[in-house]
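Q: What structure does this chain adopt?
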Amino acid sequence: MASIDLRNLITPFCLLKASNAFRSLKKDDALEILCNDPESITSLMKIIPSGSCKLISVEALEGSEPGLKARLKKITA
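A:
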């Protein structure tokens, strides 16, 4: 599983980095995204081509750097 840490980045950069990382995945690969802003995941799901991914999970991060951990699975080539 690929992982990308987008905490402490502004939303436009988060979306750019996450969409580039997602594009580089092969079918059935997963991407773990760490981010501060829940809206980043919502926005990412809007810009990724419809039907190309499945949101596997979203979890709250605890500890010194709060945020979210989301897992996406690429379902098309």
